Known about the structure:
This protein is an alpha+beta fold. The protein is built from twelve helices and ten strands. The protein has helices spanning 21-35, 79-87, 102-115, 138-157, 186-195, 200-220, 241-249, 256-262, 315-325, 328-343, 351-373, 378-381, and strands spanning 41-42, 51-54, 60-66, 124-129, 172-178, 184-185, 230-237, 274-281, 387-392, 402-407. The strands form three sheets. A five-stranded antiparallel sheet has the order 1-2-3-5-4, with helices on both faces. It has a three-stranded antiparallel sheet with strand order 6-7-8. The longest helix is centred in the last third of the chain and has 23 residues, at 351-373.
Amino acid sequence: MEASDTHIFTPWTANIIDDDEEYAEIIKQAERAIEHGILPIRILAGSSGSYFVRNPDGKIIGVFKPKDEEPYGRFNPKWTKWFQKTLCPCCFGRGCLIPNQGYLSEAGASLIDQKLRLNIVPKTRSVRLAAESFNYPAYQRHLVSARREINYNVGRHMHGKRVFEPKGLRPKLGSFQLFVNNYIGADVFLKQIEQNPLPKEVMDKFQKQFEKLVVLDYIIRNTDRNMTNWLVKYEVHEAPERDKLLQTLSSPHLQPDTQADNNDLNPQESSTNTNEILIAAIDNGLAFPFKHPDEWRAYPFHWSWLPFAKIPFSDEIKSNVLPFLSDMNFVQHELCDEIQRLFAQDKNYNRRLVERQLSVMRGQILNLVQAMRDGKSPSQLVQMPGVLVEHIPADESSGRKLFRHKFYDRYPLFSWF
């Protein structure tokens, strides 16, 4: 068998991405890599089938999470969730989430992040990919292998004639999140700064990034934000060569003609070492509930116990997000309508359930706006009663949408979990 036959090629179902050239190019790189045998690598951690996707050079460029390999998906390759579903049905999943729609939640979190210009979620969309390293049922693999074998054997005796079209494995629908480099887990970072505190100006930058994470998680009502699924990058950039030259020119041992050159330099262009600290919010697949948690567990935000959560929201984050979130037209048309269009892509789309998801999200936004206006902290925000903002069907000829507020007064049995 020739080298080209060692991999199962797939005629791609086109991923049409015409509004983001950079993201579209990364997806094309992933497709080309798979075609040339550089297959995605399954991630060992976690309870679902998720994969590191590489480019033709073998570099990791993204994380792909197929819909049918989610924790309770049909082809989840990890047995732990099957064990839970089979033997512990009373603890099956999160009762406030729609099962097997984590890929939409991942893409939805990225959408909210972009709309509010938070820039903490690595860009994520729903795409289709196929690769031998994904978990397919055995019959599909056997069928493709049989077709390939027949074509090879027939082709040797009939001048390359094919009996079957070289169809490959069916592309899987899932979320594709861009990979971020030079980040560490928040749990590791917090331990490091506890032992070696950073300068105040750096911690001020971290606080602003932290507040963005709070805004995102609260709006999408993330039920799985722990200390391992948000990342931190801290880098110190040395002063540019021009600054080093200025330091050299300030030496008393300079020659006269060199000293004259110093007069031509603009001191405003000089800068000292700069510190960059950024947060990346990953693993957003367990968000957008259709009701507030009200059964066994509360699914709290683990960041709410950090000292940073006890500091009131800064004026900067308020000025950045309040103009958007205070505008009901923006909330409805730019956030809710876009989320609804995104979720409508799923074959199991249920408009009634999605509207309930949006009712929770509107209520979260209402609480967030009120907390910011009242000068509250993230810790105080998460203690506010849950609210639903429901859409009331009205006369379509009026062109107006009416809403009603309703406090959610049901609470889970173990609220301290």
